[in-house]
Amino acid sequence: MKVINVHTRIIAQPKAQIVKLFKTLASENDQMLATDKWPRMKLDQGLRVGSKGGHAMITYFVEAYDPEHFIKFRFTVDGFNGYHQFELQELEANKTSLTHIIDMHTQNSATIKWLLAIRWLHDAYIEDAFDKVENQFSVLQKTTKWSPWVSFLRRALA
């Protein structure tokens, strides 16, 4: 099954501010991902091309990395053929677009896992990550509410 999954958040900050957070991805002081709610991303060599890792049951390696613009991860888990990527784009002096893209084909049981669970968990995971980024620059703290299905899946998989 072909999967294109895109999340974008406009952050009212200069790109340089978001780049600082972007460079902490998968570190002990990760300022991008909601590690208080979700499994931490782990990379065996940090943010560098060839570094292997993942989060939870999803594995991948860093295929390409430009610290000012994007990081692209190639999936290595069976049945997930493609990549996921974070992108940063300056829209204006104080406005930056943060985007996460999954572009893949699923096969066999991976298609069922994607449709029933992973898609929903992933969507909540990314929105929580974007909330974390946005909240570092705002007095009003944003919290994206999980769907009942995501809450159920998290309890069932705990």
Notable characteristics:
158 residues, alpha+beta, Alpha-D-Glucose-1,6-Bisphosphate, Chain A, domain 4, 7-stranded antiparallel β-sheet, 3 helices, 7 strands, 35% strand, globular
End-to-end Cα distance: 28 Å
Helix content: 25-40%
Q: Rg from C-alpha positions? A: 15 Å
Characterize the biggest β-sheet: 7 strands, antiparallel
Uncertain residue segments: none
What is the succession of H and E elements?
Answer: EHEEEEEEHH
**Number of contiguous helices:** 3
Strand order of the largest sheet: 1-7-6-5-4-3-2
Overall mean pLDDT score? 96
Relative strand content: 35-45%
Please give the number of β-strands: 7
What global shape is seen? globular
CATH class division: Alpha Beta
The named CATH superfamily: START domain
CATH architecture type:
2-Layer Sandwich
CATH topology: Alpha-D-Glucose-1,6-Bisphosphate, Chain A, domain 4
The overall number of domains is: 1
Quick summary:
This protein has helices at residues 15-22, 109-135, 148-157, and strands spanning 2-11, 42-43, 52-55, 58-66, 70-75, 80-92, 95-106. The chain is an alpha+beta fold. A 7-stranded antiparallel β-sheet has the order 1-7-6-5-4-3-2, covered by helices on one side.
Can you put this structure into words, describing what you see?
- The chain starts with a strand and ends with a helix.
- The protein contains three helices and seven strands, in the order E-H-E-E-E-E-E-E-H-H.
- Strands 1-7-6-5-4-3-2 form a seven-stranded antiparallel sheet, with helices on one face.
- The protein has a single domain, classed as Alpha-D-Glucose-1,6-Bisphosphate, Chain A, domain 4, CATH 3.30.530.
- It is α+β, with helices and mostly antiparallel strands and 158 residues long.
- The mean pLDDT is 96.
